[in-house]
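#lab-general

N.A. 3:47 PM
ok so I finally got the sequence cleaned up, no stray characters, all 278 residues accounted for. can someone with queue access submit it? mine expired

B.Y. 3:52 PM
send it over

N.A. 3:53 PM
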Amino acid sequence: MEHLSSSKIFGGQQSQYKHLSSSLNCDMVFSVYMPPQAENAKVPVLYWLSGLTCTDQNFVTKAGAQQYAAEHGIAIVCPDTSPRGDGVPDDAEGAWDFGLGAGFYVNATQPPWSDNYSMYDYVVKELPELINANFAIDGQRAAISGHSMGGHGALTIALNNREKFKSVSAFAPIVSPLNCPWGEKALGNYLGGDKSAWETYDSCSLVLSAKSQLPILVDQGGADGFLEQQLKTELLEHASKEANYPMNIRYQEGYDHSYSFIATFIGEHIAFHAKHLR
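B.Y. 4:20 PM
back already:
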């Protein structure tokens, strides 16, 4: 693991590292915020998954989360959104919604994507093992959150790994890749045409089949231009009601899909996770 940079902020350290990933067969960069409480004891951790086109740095520089993480004594780990580097395949037309920067947090099964695009395994297994071994973090107290494609990743990873996370939250998540153009393109390419293989990465399908529950908070901007065609939050509402799965889904009037929306409510999300990470 190579240390790339560190800066002191709100009494803690915001750092960036690089390592060779066995899951993704390439070098990966991730960022970690360690709150000041980590100087004296192990702290709980929040994994943040970013959206399309993002790297590990978007949340670090735009969300303003470090202040709240320091207040509650929570570390924040931000992985990149896809494998990168020479030899890692990309969309043939260089589209922004597939390939580099758009790993969708799945394990690809179709060539050429299957050689590198195993973001699900990276987030669920490899990265936590690396984090727990090298930082003052209590891996038994973990939560996960994300935005857009990352909100989809956070929800599906938590729903598939109930034993690993105490809580999950999302900003403007893609709630059903089975039923939106972004999902059809990404999962169709990564997983193939058999849509039954997509269900393990579809939050609505997972809620309907869930055998246990965990605390869920979802914020969706009412002025989000992607809401109607891509995000379809109402599908998650319907699934939660049908499955009798309680979750707090909030529509925030006037807010769009940007980091201005995330920065406004990230303090409430970190407080939500802090309550469940005690």
